[in-house]
């Protein structure tokens, strides 16, 4: 799919990013939010990213419309975790499985390669074979499973944690 462009997320992307995320809130267990987010809530999230540094957000744009994003954000507020990030990726549901996700993740990890990041985590609600394949393709290895840690849609879900070395400065 050559007509997709990738760039840093901007404030003007906020409505589309919120719509995509809220689809996953309402329809899937991949996020443990159970109530759709407001534009104001998602603006706080978007404001946490920079154009440089450890915490970044990139969007995929097709025909002028934002169709997904990949981001890295703070893993934990405690200072010793500063060189660890949590990565996320979401695509418009009708565009999954078309090769956009790997290209978007490549943009994110390329931007982060020279940052002071030692490890990246990915949390994947189980089952989600497509997300596992994507993360494994980017060098993430299984780090453990948290059993039945989230309750959504009347059942408990496991979360598999994946870890990727990043090569940050010692």
How would you characterize this protein structure?
It is globular, with a radius of gyration of 15 Å. The chain starts with a strand and ends in a 5-residue tail after the last strand. The chain is built from four helices and seven strands; from the N terminus they run βααβββαβαββ. The protein has helices at residues 14-27, 39-47, 100-112, 129-137, and strands spanning 4-8, 57-62, 65-74, 84-91, 119-125, 141-152, 155-165. The chain has a single domain (4-165), classed as Aminopeptidase. By secondary structure, it is of the alpha+beta class.
Condensed summary:
The protein has one domain: Gcn5-related N-acetyltransferase (GNAT) (Aminopeptidase), CATH 3.40.630.30.
Which topology does CATH recognise? Aminopeptidase
The number of helical runs is 4
Tell me the name of the CATH homologous superfamily.
Gcn5-related N-acetyltransferase (GNAT)
Order of helices and strands: EHHEEEHEHEE
Major sheet details: 7 strands, mixed
User: Helicity, in percent?
Assistant: 25-40%
User: How many domains comprise the coordinates?
Assistant: 1
CATH architecture: 3-Layer(aba) Sandwich
Average pLDDT, to the nearest integer? Answer: 95
Level-1 CATH class name: Alpha Beta
Strand content: 25-35%
Radius of gyration: 15 Å
Tally of DSSP β-strands: 7
Distance between the termini: 38 Å
**Poorly predicted spans:** none
